[in-house]
Design brief:
The structure is a single chain. By secondary structure, this protein is mainly alpha-helical. The chain has nine helices and no strands. The protein folds into two domains: 2-203, no CATH class; 235-415, Up-down Bundle (A middle domain of Talin 1), CATH 1.20.1420. The protein starts with a helix and ends with a helix.
Length: 456
């Protein structure tokens, strides 16, 4: 029996020890983060585990045959428990590496388990070697011919069975295990690929929906801009019309001021003849009063137009700021004109009062007439400036109208572009829906394919 155990059991134990040493190198690299759990490493780990199982199954068959002693059987059971503890530790390690959670063992824990396994293996090897104190020839001589033949045939049979088991392990079980690993890797890769494609398609679909929503919002805003541009154009046209009216009023004021000047010169020329001067002065006073009323009306109208222009400029916003400044100047000039007419009216009243004592106040009347002449000159200068200001306002209004037309043209182009974009995004959404259908079909076919592979 000792020879039998050395010939049969000892190689199995040595094979288990070699597998342990080989796997120890893989695990140490994984624990030290020097390597990754690649498909090759996973395949090697599966092969080693399958070899463990094959060797342990062979030992179980030998133990069940009744040729092992109780001590050897106990040693083999202890070795199996040590290997199970090692398998549990390796399972925790692989779970941590594959899924990122679990109790990853330390290098010290692994070394402790490895020492337990090696110790158990050495105990089995020592136990099966105890009966071999005699040489082969001595044992053969002690056995009779029948026992020797029986042991030889039994040994040959066991060797054949072990060889067959190893052959099955090497040629069939290990390749099948490798195919299982490759199949699982392929299945996982296909599912991950399909999941990634579906996620990307959903992301593209979501982005397209957001872009279409933003496109609609931009379209609404562009419509608002177009309406605002139309309103601005209407306002600009109204301002231009008001400016034309203001210009006509300025021309009328200028004509009236020329008449006032002419009347003043006439009054100066007739001042030598007191009687004639009084009569003409009375008539001139009345005409001056009429002119003052006209000037007051014009000044009030100018002030009102300037106020309207300021309101329209405020509506125009940033584009009407310069126009508002000019309108304010127009209003200021209108106020000055009104003040000047008040002064003129005061002077006329003084002239009318002085006409009662013409001889006494001829000199004073002449002086006042001169003052009126100076004031009228100032008014004419102000009117000239007002005319220039209104011309500038007219030019600005024209520029604003042109800019508004440009804005409206740009808005129309933007609307056209948004329309094209909407068509593109609609086509994109349809393409994405089609892609989703294709991916679902691919996923279904992949599941069918993997199911068929599992049947093999």
């Amino acid at each position: 029996k000792g020879v039998f155990l050395n010939l049969i059991v000892k190689p199995i134990v040595d094979g288990i020890e070699n597998l342990t040493n080989t796997e120890q190198g893989y695990i140490l690299d994984l624990l030290a983060n020097d390597s990754e759990l690649t498909p090759e490493v996973k395949g090697s780990v599966v092969n080693i585990r399958e070899s463990y199982l094959a060797y342990m199954k062979t030992l179980s068959l030998i133990a069940d045959s009744g040729i092992l002693t109780k001590e050897v059987k106990e040693k083999i059971e202890h070795m199996g428990e040590a290997l199970k503890a090692m398998e549990e530790t390796k399972r925790n390690l692989y779970t941590t590496l594959l899924f990122g959670f679990g109790n990853k063992p330390t290098v010290e824990e692994f070394f402790t388990l490895t020492e337990d396994v090696h110790h158990a293996i050495h105990e089995v090897a020592s136990a099966v070697s105890k009966p071999t104190t005699h040489t082969m020839n001595a044992l053969v001589e002690e056995l009779d011919s029948k026992e020797r033949l029986l042991y030889v045939l039994g040994g040959i049979l066991i060797v054949f069975l072990v060889g067959a088991a190893v052959l099955v392990q090497t040629k069939i079980i290990l390749p099948l295990a490798k195919q299982v690993v490759l199949r699982k890797d392929f299945e996982g890769s296909v599912k991950r690929l399909i999941d990634d494609v579906q996620n990307q398609i959903q992301s593209v679909k979501s982005s397209a929906a957001q872009i279409m929503k933003a496109n609609q919002t931009v379209g609404e805003n562009v419509t608002g801009v177009e309406n605002a541009a139309g309103n601005t154009d209407v306002n600009v046209q109204a301002v231009a019309s008001a400016i034309h009216e203001l210009n006509a009023s300025i021309i009328e004021i200028n004509d009236n001021m020329e008449k006032v000047t002419s009347m003043i010169h006439g009054a100066t020329q007739t001042s030598a003849n007191t009687q004639e001067l009084m009569e003409k002065l009375a008539g001139a006073s009345e005409r001056i009063g009429d002119a003052i009323n006209i000037i007051n009306g014009i000044a009030d109208q100018t002030n009102l137009l300037a106020l309207n222009a300021s309101i329209e400029a405020a509506r125009a916003g940033e584009a009407g700021r310069g126009f508002a400044v000019v309108a304010e100047e127009v209003r200021s000039l209108a106020e000055e004109t009104g003040n000047a007419t008040l002064k003129i009216q005061s002077f006329v009243e003084e002239i009318q009062s002085g006409s009662k004592n013409a001889q006494v106040s001829i000199d004073e009347v002449s002086s006042q007439i001169q003052m009126i002449s100076d004031i009228s000159s100032s008014v004419q200068v102000a009117i000239s400036e007002q005319s220039s200001a209104t011309e500038s306002i007219a030019i600005n209004a024209t520029d604003a109208s042109d800019a508004t037309n440009t804005v409206r043209a740009s808005v129309e182009q933007v609307v056209d572009i948004l329309s094209v974009n909407e068509q593109i995004f609609t086509q994109m959404s349809e393409t994405v829906d089609s892609s989703v259908s294709k991916v679902e079909e691919l996923s279904h076919k992949s599941d069918v394919f993997l199911t068929e592979i599992k049947k093999i």
